[in-house]
Amino acid sequence: MKPVRLTGRAAIGLTRMIGRVTIFAGRGLARVGAHPSELARQMLHIGWLSLPVVGLTALFTGAALALQIHSGGERFQAGDVVPAIVAIGMARELGPVLGGLMVAARVASAIAAELGTMRVTEQIDALVTLSTDPIGWLVSPRLWAGVLCVPVLVGVGDIIGIMGGWIIGVQALGFNSTTYLANSWAYLESWDVVSGLIKGAFFGLIVALAGCWFGMRAGGGAAGVGRATTNAVVAASVGILAANFALTGLFF
Question: Has keyword Transmembrane helix (predicted)?
Answer without folding.
Answer: yes
